[in-house]
Protein backbone atom coordinates (compact mmCIF):
# COMPACT_ATOMS: atom_id res chain seq x y z
CA UNK A 1 0.00 0.00 0.00
CA UNK A 2 1.33 3.41 -0.90
CA UNK A 3 2.25 5.68 1.98
CA UNK A 4 1.29 9.34 2.24
CA UNK A 5 4.82 10.14 3.35
CA UNK A 6 8.19 9.86 1.68
CA UNK A 7 9.54 8.49 4.95
CA UNK A 8 7.66 5.84 6.93
CA UNK A 9 9.27 4.54 10.18
CA UNK A 10 7.93 1.06 9.37
CA UNK A 11 10.06 1.00 6.20
CA UNK A 12 13.21 0.65 8.30
CA UNK A 13 12.11 -2.90 9.16
CA UNK A 14 11.98 -3.63 5.41
CA UNK A 15 15.58 -2.57 4.76
CA UNK A 16 16.64 -6.19 4.26
CA UNK A 17 14.16 -6.52 1.41
CA UNK A 18 16.43 -4.55 -0.96
CA UNK A 19 18.20 -7.89 -1.44
CA UNK A 20 15.11 -9.34 -3.11
CA UNK A 21 15.60 -7.24 -6.24
CA UNK A 22 19.35 -7.68 -6.45
CA UNK A 23 20.37 -10.67 -4.43
CA UNK A 24 24.13 -10.76 -4.88
CA UNK A 25 24.74 -7.05 -4.38
CA UNK A 26 22.29 -6.87 -1.46
CA UNK A 27 23.88 -9.81 0.31
CA UNK A 28 27.38 -8.45 -0.23
CA UNK A 29 26.31 -5.08 1.13
CA UNK A 30 24.76 -6.54 4.32
CA UNK A 31 27.73 -8.82 4.86
CA UNK A 32 30.04 -5.81 4.61
CA UNK A 33 27.74 -3.69 6.78
CA UNK A 34 27.62 -6.33 9.50
CA UNK A 35 31.38 -6.75 9.44
CA UNK A 36 31.99 -3.01 9.71
CA UNK A 37 30.03 -2.80 12.96
CA UNK A 38 31.69 -5.74 14.68
CA UNK A 39 34.10 -5.10 17.54
CA UNK A 40 37.50 -4.37 16.03
CA UNK A 41 40.21 -1.80 16.65
CA UNK A 42 37.21 0.36 17.60
CA UNK A 43 34.59 -0.94 20.03
CA UNK A 44 31.04 -1.44 18.80
CA UNK A 45 30.08 1.36 21.19
CA UNK A 46 32.53 3.79 19.53
CA UNK A 47 31.24 2.75 16.13
CA UNK A 48 27.66 3.40 17.21
CA UNK A 49 28.59 6.96 18.16
CA UNK A 50 30.37 7.58 14.85
CA UNK A 51 27.34 6.19 13.01
CA UNK A 52 25.05 8.44 15.04
CA UNK A 53 27.06 11.55 14.15
CA UNK A 54 27.17 10.62 10.46
CA UNK A 55 23.44 9.81 10.52
CA UNK A 56 22.85 13.43 11.46
CA UNK A 57 25.19 14.95 8.92
CA UNK A 58 23.56 12.74 6.28
CA UNK A 59 20.18 13.74 7.72
CA UNK A 60 18.96 10.18 7.32
CA UNK A 61 15.85 9.63 9.49
CA UNK A 62 16.17 5.85 9.34
CA UNK A 63 19.80 6.02 10.46
CA UNK A 64 19.01 8.46 13.28
CA UNK A 65 16.24 6.12 14.45
CA UNK A 66 18.49 3.06 14.26
CA UNK A 67 21.64 4.50 15.81
CA UNK A 68 19.92 6.40 18.61
CA UNK A 69 18.45 3.06 19.66
CA UNK A 70 21.73 1.25 19.09
CA UNK A 71 23.57 3.83 21.21
CA UNK A 72 21.05 3.44 24.04
CA UNK A 73 21.45 -0.32 23.86
CA UNK A 74 25.19 0.09 24.29
CA UNK A 75 24.78 2.23 27.39
CA UNK A 76 25.66 5.52 25.69
CA UNK A 77 24.35 8.51 27.66
CA UNK A 78 22.34 11.35 26.11
CA UNK A 79 25.20 13.76 26.87
CA UNK A 80 27.58 11.55 24.86
CA UNK A 81 25.07 11.30 22.02
CA UNK A 82 24.57 15.06 21.82
CA UNK A 83 28.34 15.65 21.86
CA UNK A 84 28.67 13.23 18.95
CA UNK A 85 26.00 15.19 17.03
CA UNK A 86 27.95 18.39 17.73
CA UNK A 87 31.08 16.78 16.32
CA UNK A 88 29.13 16.11 13.12
CA UNK A 89 27.73 19.64 13.14
CA UNK A 90 31.19 21.16 13.71
CA UNK A 91 32.62 19.29 10.75
CA UNK A 92 29.63 20.30 8.59
CA UNK A 93 29.93 24.00 9.51
CA UNK A 94 33.73 23.85 9.40
CA UNK A 95 33.53 22.34 5.94
CA UNK A 96 31.33 25.26 4.85
CA UNK A 97 33.49 27.91 6.48
CA UNK A 98 36.83 26.55 5.30
CA UNK A 99 35.56 27.21 1.76
CA UNK A 100 35.49 30.85 2.85
CA UNK A 101 39.25 30.77 2.23
CA UNK A 102 38.52 29.88 -1.38
CA UNK A 103 36.20 32.87 -1.58
CA UNK A 104 38.85 35.12 0.03
CA UNK A 105 41.49 33.86 -2.43
CA UNK A 106 39.21 34.68 -5.32
CA UNK A 107 38.35 38.15 -4.02
CA UNK A 108 42.03 38.86 -3.40
CA UNK A 109 42.88 37.78 -6.92
CA UNK A 110 40.08 39.69 -8.62
CA UNK A 111 39.89 42.75 -6.46
CA UNK A 112 42.93 42.65 -4.13
CA UNK B 1 -0.12 17.56 37.02
CA UNK B 2 3.53 16.98 37.88
CA UNK B 3 2.59 16.14 41.45
CA UNK B 4 0.04 13.63 40.17
CA UNK B 5 2.66 12.01 37.93
CA UNK B 6 5.13 11.78 40.80
CA UNK B 7 2.52 10.19 43.05
CA UNK B 8 1.70 7.68 40.32
CA UNK B 9 5.36 6.73 40.09
CA UNK B 10 5.38 5.92 43.80
CA UNK B 11 2.49 3.47 43.63
CA UNK B 12 2.10 -0.05 42.26
CA UNK B 13 -0.40 -0.78 39.49
CA UNK B 14 -2.41 -2.63 42.14
CA UNK B 15 -2.64 0.45 44.33
CA UNK B 16 -3.63 2.56 41.34
CA UNK B 17 -6.35 0.02 40.39
CA UNK B 18 -4.85 -0.03 36.93
CA UNK B 19 -6.36 -2.42 34.38
CA UNK B 20 -2.95 -3.99 33.93
CA UNK B 21 -2.81 -4.97 37.60
CA UNK B 22 -5.03 -7.85 36.48
CA UNK B 23 -2.95 -10.68 34.97
CA UNK B 24 -5.67 -11.62 32.47
CA UNK B 25 -5.69 -8.09 31.06
CA UNK B 26 -1.96 -8.34 30.42
CA UNK B 27 -2.35 -11.73 28.75
CA UNK B 28 -5.18 -10.34 26.63
CA UNK B 29 -2.96 -7.49 25.45
CA UNK B 30 -0.18 -9.96 24.63
CA UNK B 31 -2.47 -12.18 22.59
CA UNK B 32 -4.45 -9.60 20.65
CA UNK B 33 -3.47 -6.88 18.16
CA UNK B 34 -0.33 -7.66 16.17
CA UNK B 35 -0.35 -11.29 17.38
CA UNK B 36 -4.00 -11.90 16.52
CA UNK B 37 -4.03 -10.26 13.09
CA UNK B 38 -1.07 -12.28 11.84
CA UNK B 39 1.40 -9.39 11.69
CA UNK B 40 3.67 -11.26 14.11
CA UNK B 41 3.79 -15.00 14.88
CA UNK B 42 2.77 -16.11 18.38
CA UNK B 43 5.54 -17.61 20.52
CA UNK B 44 4.16 -21.13 20.13
CA UNK B 45 4.10 -20.74 16.32
CA UNK B 46 7.66 -19.44 16.38
CA UNK B 47 9.17 -22.24 18.47
CA UNK B 48 7.18 -24.76 16.46
CA UNK B 49 9.19 -23.69 13.38
CA UNK B 50 12.21 -25.41 14.94
CA UNK B 51 10.20 -28.27 16.50
CA UNK B 52 10.65 -26.92 20.02
CA UNK B 53 6.94 -26.90 20.85
CA UNK B 54 5.80 -27.88 23.42
CA UNK B 55 8.60 -26.55 25.58
CA UNK B 56 9.67 -29.15 28.14
CA UNK B 57 11.81 -29.05 31.31
CA UNK B 58 15.29 -30.57 31.08
CA UNK B 59 15.77 -31.28 34.79
CA UNK B 60 15.56 -29.01 37.80
CA UNK B 61 18.65 -26.94 38.67
CA UNK B 62 17.26 -23.76 40.21
CA UNK B 63 14.61 -23.23 42.87
CA UNK B 64 13.55 -19.61 42.85
CA UNK B 65 11.48 -18.50 45.81
CA UNK B 66 9.64 -15.20 45.85
CA UNK B 67 9.23 -14.40 49.55
CA UNK B 68 6.94 -11.41 48.99
CA UNK B 69 6.07 -8.47 46.78
CA UNK B 70 6.75 -5.78 49.38
CA UNK B 71 9.61 -3.49 48.43
CA UNK B 72 11.08 -0.17 49.58
CA UNK B 73 11.41 0.88 45.91
CA UNK B 74 8.86 1.41 43.12
CA UNK B 75 10.93 0.85 39.99
CA UNK B 76 9.37 2.05 36.78
CA UNK B 77 9.79 -1.29 35.01
CA UNK B 78 9.21 -3.76 37.84
CA UNK B 79 7.75 -7.00 36.48
CA UNK B 80 6.54 -7.89 39.98
CA UNK B 81 4.63 -4.62 40.43
CA UNK B 82 6.36 -4.52 43.81
CA UNK B 83 6.31 -1.58 46.20
CA UNK B 84 5.72 -0.49 49.80
CA UNK B 85 1.97 -0.86 49.23
CA UNK B 86 2.15 -4.59 48.38
CA UNK B 87 1.29 -6.77 51.38
CA UNK B 88 1.80 -10.26 49.92
CA UNK B 89 4.38 -11.88 52.19
CA UNK B 90 5.42 -15.54 52.51
CA UNK B 91 4.50 -16.99 55.90
CA UNK B 92 6.83 -19.03 58.09
CA UNK B 93 4.64 -22.08 57.46
CA UNK B 94 5.20 -21.82 53.68
CA UNK B 95 8.91 -21.23 54.29
CA UNK B 96 9.01 -24.46 56.31
CA UNK B 97 7.42 -26.27 53.39
CA UNK B 98 10.08 -24.71 51.11
CA UNK B 99 12.83 -25.92 53.47
CA UNK B 100 11.53 -29.49 53.25
CA UNK B 101 11.77 -29.22 49.47
CA UNK B 102 15.25 -27.62 49.58
CA UNK B 103 16.50 -30.55 51.69
CA UNK B 104 15.37 -33.09 49.14
CA UNK B 105 15.71 -31.34 45.80
CA UNK B 106 18.20 -32.17 43.07
CA UNK B 107 18.57 -28.42 42.36
CA UNK B 108 22.04 -26.91 42.88
CA UNK B 109 20.87 -23.29 43.17
CA UNK B 110 18.51 -21.57 45.57
CA UNK B 111 17.45 -18.11 44.48
CA UNK B 112 15.54 -15.81 46.86
CA UNK B 113 13.75 -12.87 45.33
CA UNK B 114 10.90 -10.40 45.96
CA UNK B 115 10.06 -7.46 46.29
CA UNK B 116 12.86 -6.81 48.68
CA UNK B 117 13.25 -10.28 50.22
CA UNK B 118 14.90 -8.73 53.30
CA UNK B 119 11.57 -7.08 54.20
CA UNK B 120 9.96 -10.43 54.97
CA UNK B 121 10.00 -10.62 58.81
CA UNK B 122 11.17 -14.25 58.64
CA UNK B 123 13.87 -13.58 56.04
CA UNK B 124 16.88 -13.99 58.38
CA UNK B 125 15.50 -17.13 59.97
CA UNK B 126 14.89 -18.59 56.52
CA UNK B 127 18.39 -17.74 55.28
CA UNK B 128 19.94 -19.28 58.42
CA UNK B 129 17.95 -22.49 58.00
CA UNK B 130 18.40 -22.74 54.23
CA UNK B 131 22.15 -22.13 54.41
CA UNK B 132 22.52 -25.17 56.71
CA UNK B 133 21.31 -27.46 53.91
CA UNK B 134 24.53 -26.88 52.00
CA UNK B 135 23.07 -26.03 48.61
CA UNK B 136 25.86 -25.15 46.14
CA UNK B 137 24.80 -21.63 45.14
CA UNK B 138 22.57 -19.65 47.51
CA UNK B 139 21.46 -16.37 45.90
CA UNK B 140 19.66 -13.42 47.43
CA UNK B 141 18.46 -10.77 44.97
CA UNK B 142 19.01 -7.60 46.94
CA UNK B 143 18.00 -4.20 45.61
CA UNK B 144 20.97 -2.64 47.51
CA UNK B 145 19.06 0.38 48.84
CA UNK B 146 17.39 -1.82 51.46
CA UNK B 147 20.78 -2.07 53.20
CA UNK B 148 20.66 1.71 53.67
CA UNK B 149 16.89 2.08 54.15
CA UNK B 150 16.70 1.55 57.90
CA UNK B 151 19.07 0.90 60.81
CA UNK B 152 17.75 -2.63 61.20
CA UNK B 153 19.16 -3.49 57.76
CA UNK B 154 22.59 -1.88 58.16
CA UNK B 155 24.25 -5.15 59.21
CA UNK B 156 23.01 -7.07 56.15
CA UNK B 157 26.45 -7.18 54.45
CA UNK B 158 27.85 -8.98 57.54
CA UNK B 159 24.79 -11.21 57.73
CA UNK B 160 25.12 -12.19 54.06
CA UNK B 161 28.83 -12.84 54.56
CA UNK B 162 28.22 -15.05 57.59
CA UNK B 163 25.92 -17.29 55.57
CA UNK B 164 28.01 -17.16 52.40
CA UNK B 165 25.11 -15.79 50.40
CA UNK B 166 25.65 -14.87 46.75
CA UNK B 167 24.35 -11.34 46.15
CA UNK B 168 22.78 -10.31 42.84
CA UNK B 169 21.63 -6.71 42.51
CA UNK B 170 20.08 -4.53 39.83
CA UNK B 171 21.88 -1.55 38.38
CA UNK B 172 20.48 -0.14 35.13
CA UNK B 173 23.42 2.19 34.50
CA UNK B 174 26.62 3.56 35.96
CA UNK B 175 25.24 7.09 35.90
CA UNK B 176 22.87 8.70 38.40
CA UNK B 177 20.36 10.08 35.88
CA UNK B 178 19.56 6.84 34.12
CA UNK B 179 19.47 4.80 37.32
CA UNK B 180 17.21 7.20 39.22
CA UNK B 181 14.87 7.54 36.24
CA UNK B 182 14.16 3.83 36.34
CA UNK B 183 14.50 3.01 40.03
CA UNK B 184 13.48 6.22 41.78
CA UNK B 185 15.06 9.41 43.04
CA UNK B 186 18.10 8.90 45.24
CA UNK B 187 18.41 5.19 44.43
CA UNK B 188 21.74 5.61 42.65
CA UNK B 189 23.53 7.27 45.56
CA UNK B 190 22.20 4.75 48.07
CA UNK B 191 23.08 1.83 45.77
CA UNK B 192 26.63 3.14 45.43
CA UNK B 193 26.98 3.37 49.21
CA UNK B 194 25.58 -0.14 49.63
CA UNK B 195 27.98 -1.53 47.02
CA UNK B 196 30.90 0.14 48.82
CA UNK B 197 29.74 -1.46 52.08
CA UNK B 198 29.52 -4.86 50.41
CA UNK B 199 33.02 -4.38 48.99
CA UNK B 200 34.25 -3.43 52.46
CA UNK B 201 33.29 -6.84 53.88
CA UNK B 202 34.84 -8.61 50.89
CA UNK B 203 31.93 -8.95 48.46
CA UNK B 204 32.80 -8.58 44.80
CA UNK B 205 36.54 -8.27 45.34
CA UNK B 206 38.88 -10.04 42.91
CA UNK B 207 39.42 -13.68 43.98
CA UNK B 208 36.89 -13.30 46.80
CA UNK B 209 34.52 -16.20 47.30
CA UNK B 210 31.85 -13.75 48.36
CA UNK B 211 30.04 -13.39 45.04
CA UNK B 212 28.60 -10.05 44.06
CA UNK B 213 27.01 -9.82 40.61
CA UNK B 214 25.07 -7.00 39.04
CA UNK B 215 22.05 -7.17 36.78
CA UNK B 216 21.75 -4.71 33.93
CA UNK B 217 18.33 -4.24 32.41
CA UNK B 218 17.75 -1.38 29.97
CA UNK B 219 16.25 1.83 31.31
CA UNK B 220 13.84 2.20 28.38
CA UNK B 221 12.11 0.56 25.43
CA UNK B 222 15.18 -1.10 23.95
CA UNK B 223 17.01 -4.40 24.27
CA UNK B 224 20.29 -4.96 26.09
CA UNK B 225 23.41 -5.24 23.95
CA UNK B 226 26.40 -7.51 24.34
CA UNK B 227 26.76 -8.62 27.98
CA UNK B 228 30.57 -8.81 27.96
CA UNK B 229 30.97 -5.28 26.52
CA UNK B 230 28.49 -3.86 29.02
CA UNK B 231 30.32 -5.59 31.86
CA UNK B 232 33.57 -3.98 30.74
CA UNK B 233 31.97 -0.51 30.65
CA UNK B 234 30.27 -0.98 34.03
CA UNK B 235 33.46 -2.22 35.68
CA UNK B 236 35.54 0.63 34.32
CA UNK B 237 33.05 3.34 35.31
CA UNK B 238 32.24 2.00 38.79
CA UNK B 239 35.91 1.50 39.62
CA UNK B 240 37.04 4.90 38.30
CA UNK B 241 34.16 6.90 39.76
CA UNK B 242 33.44 5.09 43.03
CA UNK B 243 36.19 2.52 43.60
CA UNK B 244 33.57 -0.25 43.41
CA UNK B 245 34.28 -3.79 42.26
CA UNK B 246 31.95 -6.66 41.39
CA UNK B 247 32.23 -10.04 39.70
CA UNK B 248 29.84 -10.48 36.78
CA UNK B 249 27.25 -8.41 35.00
CA UNK B 250 24.08 -10.16 33.82
CA UNK B 251 22.26 -8.45 30.96
CA UNK B 252 18.53 -9.08 31.27
CA UNK B 253 15.84 -8.12 28.76
CA UNK B 254 12.78 -6.33 30.13
CA UNK B 255 9.79 -8.60 29.59
CA UNK B 256 6.61 -6.92 28.36
CA UNK B 257 4.52 -7.55 31.46
CA UNK B 258 3.26 -5.58 34.46
CA UNK B 259 4.76 -2.10 34.93
CA UNK B 260 7.06 -2.42 31.92
CA UNK B 261 4.06 -3.32 29.75
CA UNK B 262 2.22 -0.34 31.21
CA UNK B 263 5.21 1.87 30.35
CA UNK B 264 5.43 0.47 26.79
CA UNK B 265 1.76 1.17 26.13
CA UNK B 266 1.78 4.63 27.75
CA UNK B 267 4.89 5.69 25.80
CA UNK B 268 3.52 4.28 22.51
CA UNK B 269 6.42 1.84 22.26
CA UNK B 270 4.54 -1.46 22.66
CA UNK B 271 4.36 -2.52 19.00
CA UNK B 272 7.92 -1.48 18.16
CA UNK B 273 9.22 -3.29 21.23
CA UNK B 274 7.39 -6.50 20.33
CA UNK B 275 8.77 -6.23 16.78
CA UNK B 276 12.28 -5.82 18.23
CA UNK B 277 11.82 -8.94 20.38
CA UNK B 278 10.46 -11.03 17.52
CA UNK B 279 13.12 -9.75 15.07
CA UNK B 280 15.82 -10.69 17.58
CA UNK B 281 14.34 -14.17 18.18
CA UNK B 282 17.14 -16.71 18.50
CA UNK B 283 16.15 -20.39 18.34
CA UNK B 284 19.44 -21.35 20.04
CA UNK B 285 18.35 -19.41 23.13
CA UNK B 286 15.19 -21.54 23.40
CA UNK B 287 17.29 -24.57 24.32
CA UNK B 288 18.57 -22.82 27.46
CA UNK B 289 15.65 -20.67 28.63
CA UNK B 290 15.47 -20.68 32.40
CA UNK B 291 11.97 -22.18 32.64
CA UNK B 292 13.55 -25.44 31.45
CA UNK B 293 15.67 -25.78 34.60
CA UNK B 294 13.79 -23.63 37.13
CA UNK B 295 10.76 -23.81 39.38
CA UNK B 296 9.43 -20.53 40.72
CA UNK B 297 7.56 -20.55 44.04
CA UNK B 298 5.28 -17.66 44.97
CA UNK B 299 4.75 -16.09 48.40
CA UNK B 300 1.65 -18.26 48.88
CA UNK B 301 3.41 -21.47 47.86
CA UNK B 302 2.15 -21.95 44.31
CA UNK B 303 4.46 -23.25 41.61
CA UNK B 304 5.29 -21.59 38.29
CA UNK B 305 7.65 -22.12 35.35
CA UNK B 306 9.32 -18.77 36.04
CA UNK B 307 8.93 -15.54 38.01
CA UNK B 308 7.28 -13.88 34.98
CA UNK B 309 4.63 -16.59 34.71
CA UNK B 310 4.10 -16.14 38.44
CA UNK B 311 3.22 -12.49 37.90
CA UNK B 312 0.89 -13.47 35.04
CA UNK B 313 -0.70 -16.05 37.40
CA UNK B 314 0.11 -18.87 34.96
CA UNK B 315 0.63 -21.84 37.31
CA UNK B 316 2.57 -24.90 36.17
CA UNK B 317 0.61 -27.23 33.91
CA UNK B 318 0.85 -30.16 36.29
CA UNK B 319 -1.37 -31.89 38.81
CA UNK B 320 1.21 -30.67 41.36
CA UNK B 321 0.69 -26.94 41.74
CA UNK B 322 1.59 -26.19 45.35
CA UNK B 323 4.74 -26.53 47.47
CA UNK B 324 2.78 -28.63 50.01
CA UNK B 325 2.40 -31.41 47.46
CA UNK B 326 5.79 -30.94 45.76
CA UNK B 327 7.01 -33.87 43.68
CA UNK B 328 9.99 -33.21 41.41
CA UNK B 329 9.50 -36.27 39.25
CA UNK B 330 5.93 -35.39 38.38
CA UNK B 331 6.84 -31.70 37.90
CA UNK B 332 9.65 -32.56 35.51
CA UNK B 333 7.07 -34.25 33.33
CA UNK B 334 5.12 -31.15 32.32
CA UNK B 335 4.72 -28.79 29.39
CA UNK B 336 5.91 -25.25 30.08
CA UNK B 337 3.22 -22.58 29.91
CA UNK B 338 4.06 -19.92 27.32
CA UNK B 339 2.72 -16.69 25.88
CA UNK B 340 4.13 -13.79 23.87
CA UNK B 341 6.12 -12.40 26.84
CA UNK B 342 8.42 -15.42 26.39
CA UNK B 343 9.98 -13.65 23.37
CA UNK B 344 11.81 -11.58 26.00
CA UNK B 345 13.87 -14.60 27.04
CA UNK B 346 14.77 -15.69 23.50
CA UNK B 347 15.87 -12.35 21.98
CA UNK B 348 19.50 -12.00 20.88
CA UNK B 349 21.80 -13.93 23.18
CA UNK B 350 18.77 -14.88 25.30
CA UNK B 351 17.90 -13.68 28.77
CA UNK B 352 17.48 -15.29 32.17
CA UNK B 353 17.87 -14.37 35.82
CA UNK B 354 21.51 -15.40 35.28
CA UNK B 355 21.94 -13.21 32.19
CA UNK B 356 22.41 -14.38 28.62
CA UNK B 357 21.92 -18.05 27.81
CA UNK B 358 24.02 -18.50 24.66
CA UNK B 359 27.69 -18.01 23.90
From TrEMBL, chain A:
Pfam families given in the database record: CMD
**Annotated keywords:** Oxidoreductase, Peroxidase
Q: Where is the Carboxymuconolactone decarboxylase-like domain?
A: 24-98
Q: From the record, give the transmembrane residue ranges.
A: none
State the InterPro entries in the record: AhpD-like, AhpD_core, AlkhydPrxdase/COmuclacdeCOase, CMD-like
Q: Which GO terms describe its molecular function?
A: peroxiredoxin activity
Asked whether the keyword Oxidoreductase is assigned, the reply is yes
Task: Extract the NCBIfam families matched here.
Answer: ahpD_dom, perox_w_seleSAM
Record's protein name: Arsenosugar biosynthesis-associated peroxidase-like protein
Q: Which organism is it from?
A: Aequorivita xiaoshiensis
Its taxonomic placement starts with: Bacteria, Pseudomonadati, Bacteroidota, Flavobacteriia, Flavobacteriales
Amino acid sequence: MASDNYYDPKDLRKFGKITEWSEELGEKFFEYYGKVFEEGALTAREKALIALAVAHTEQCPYCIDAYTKDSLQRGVTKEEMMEAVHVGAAIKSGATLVHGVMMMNKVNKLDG
Amino acid sequence: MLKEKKKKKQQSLHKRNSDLAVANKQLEKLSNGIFANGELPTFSEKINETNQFPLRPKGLEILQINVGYMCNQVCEHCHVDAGPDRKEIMTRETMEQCLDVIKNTGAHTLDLTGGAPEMNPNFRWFVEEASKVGIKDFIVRSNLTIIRANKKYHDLPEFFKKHNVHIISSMPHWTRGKTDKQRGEGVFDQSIKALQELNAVGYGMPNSELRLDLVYNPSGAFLPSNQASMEKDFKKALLEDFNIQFHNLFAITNLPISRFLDYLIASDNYEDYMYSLVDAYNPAAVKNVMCRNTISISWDGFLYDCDFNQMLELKVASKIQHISEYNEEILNNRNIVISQHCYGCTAGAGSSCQGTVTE
